[in-house]
Structure formats: C-alpha cells, structure tokens
Design a protein that fits this description.
There is one protein chain. The longest helix has 14 residues. This protein has two helices and 14 strands, in the order H-H-E-E-E-E-E-E-E-E-E-E-E-E-E-E. Strands 1-2-3-4-5-6-7-8-9-10-11-12-13-14 form a 14-stranded antiparallel barrel. It is globular. It has one domain: monomeric porin ompg (Porin). The protein starts with a helix and ends with a strand. With 290 residues, the chain is mostly beta strands.
C-alpha cells in the first residue's frame, strides 16, 4: 500500500489532473481554447455569477475529452431560469486508468491494475442586480485511488460587473472547504482565486472579445502565478477561439472553434503545452431546451 501512494503523489504532481486538482482542469472546449476567465460567459463552472448570463430559459451542456497524461475528462451541466434567479446543476468526472501495481521486486507482469479518479456534483444559484451579478455554489467532491477514497464539500462565490463600452470585470473564489482523511491525511482542496476582465471590440463584419485574467491556486506551490490571455473572434455563427497562458514552469497556447446553430452549439478545443505529456482536447455540445 505504501508503494501505491508513492505512485499517487507522483502522478498528482506531474500530471496536474488527478487528486483534487481535477477540480481546476478545463472542463469544456471553450475553457481549453480561450483559458480560465471569470468573465467568459460560457464558463459557468468557473464563476457562479455567470449562471444568470444564460439567455435561454434552460440549457444542457455535455463535454468529453482528455487532459495531459491521458487523463479522461467528462462533465455535464444544466441551467434553469426561474423568475429573476438562475439555477445550475452539474457533474464532472476525471480518471486515469490502467495504472500498474507492483511489489518491491522487479517483475515482468504487474500484480494488478487500478484507477485514480475524481468526481464532483455541483449546484448553485445566481442573481442579477442592475448591471451586476452575484453567484454561489456548493459541491460534493469525491476522489479515490486503488482501495482508498476521500470525500468533502466545497463552496464557491462569484461576482460579475458589466461596465460601459463592452467592459466586464469578474472575480471568482472556488473550493473553499475540506476533505475527509485519505491514508491518515486529508487531501487539500485546491483553493482557487480568479480575477479577470474582458473588452468587446466591433470590427466591421467581425466582433472580437479580449480576455485577461490572473489565477492563484493553493496546491500549486511551485507555480506562484498564472496569467491567461484569450480572444474570441466572431463572424456570423462562428467563433474562432485562441488563448495563451504563462506561469513559472508551464506555458501553453490553445486553439478552438465554436459553431452556433439554432438550438445547439458544437465546440472543439486543443491545447499545446510545454509538458510533453500529450495534447489535451475537448469536444463540447450545448443544447437549448424548451
């Protein structure tokens, strides 16, 4: 069992996606393409204040993809407007499969295989007040590796201000909470703080929205900062997405495409990073419901 947890901590640090860090990996194609911005209206899982920015009465979002190191990503989201309030319900799952369990002696075949996984269920509410929105969310979080598991509760708060001339400001605080004990020690939730802004530019037949944000994550002691720059270029029903992120040790560029049809949207994003552990990709579908 001691060897199992050595493998676990190695993976959680190097892949940045298993353990409680699955809570901060990109969850849809828009986030993967543009970056983690608390003012990007499609990223409701990042900022609970964004729930109320949904234009339709209800919508369903389905996302499937992979993160670095072949970590699988899946998530669902549902938004429902009720009078002046907007409610959100969502779930996300991340897993790394076919990990080998070996003993102290070198052997040709492993003693067995196991999976490291993370699962969360989230609900939240958002209120609009004039040109400002406020949001709150609560999540049930579960993670496990081999025969061990841990669970806990996390809270999130968000704020969005719509200013003049197409300028938005947003703040989000996520994962305030605690987990139960796992192998004599409780895992730490990745307390995450996002501060960002966006600006809309109208360019003849096109419109362009530029996003900037800064992020702090309590579990990333080796990454003291992370800055994100993104752009959404819109022409008719097509969004061309791009992003760039820089931190102390990991940099990446990303690209994506979003096609808006009458009752649904299709989005695809790909990330090219400096970790040489694969290229994350996510496909997202969004359905407008009656």
């Amino acid at each position: 069992m001691h060897l199992t947890f050595k493998i676990y901590f190695l993976l959680s640090l190097s892949l940045y996606g298993i353990g409680t860090q699955f809570l901060v990996t990109p969850y849809n194609a828009n986030e993967l393409s543009v970056g983690s911005h608390p003012t990007y209206l499609a990223l409701v899982n990042l900022n609970p204040a964004l729930y109320s920015q949904e234009k339709k009465n209800s919508s369903l979002m389905v996302n499937r993809g992979s993160w670095v190191g072949d970590v699988s990503l899946s998530s669902l989201g549902y938004i429902q407007k009720v009078n002046d309030k907007t409610f959100y319900f969502g779930a996300r799952y991340s897993a790394l499969s076919d990990l080998e369990f070996r003993g102290e002696k070198p052997e040709d075949e492993p003693l067995g295989y196991f999976t490291s996984h993370g699962l969360s269920f989230k609900s939240g509410i958002s209120l609009n007040r004039n040109n400002k929105a406020y949001g709150f969310s609560i999540s049930y979080v579960s993670m496990g590796i081999y025969t061990e598991s841990s669970s806990g509760i996390g809270l999130g708060f968000g704020y969005l201000a719509k200013l003049k001339k197409g300028v938005n400001l947003g703040i989000s605080i996520q994962n305030i909470g605690k987990m139960s004990v796992l192998d004599n020690e409780a895992p730490q939730l990745p307390l995450r703080v996002l501060i960002g802004s966006s600006k809309l530019f109208n360019l003849l037949m096109f419109s362009s929205t530029v996003y900037t944000s800064a992020e702090l994550n309590s579990l990333n002691s080796k990454i003291n900062y992370k800055y994100n720059l993104g752009n959404k270029l819109t022409w008719k029903q097509i969004d061309i997405l791009s992003g760039f992120s820089i931190s102390e040790r990991v940099n990446y560029v990303s690209l994506g495409l979003n096609l808006k049809l009458k009752k649904y949207e299709i989005s695809y994003g790909i990330n090219i990073n400096s970790q040489s552990l694969g290229e994350p990709q996510i496909l997202s579908l969004k359905f407008q419901l009656p």
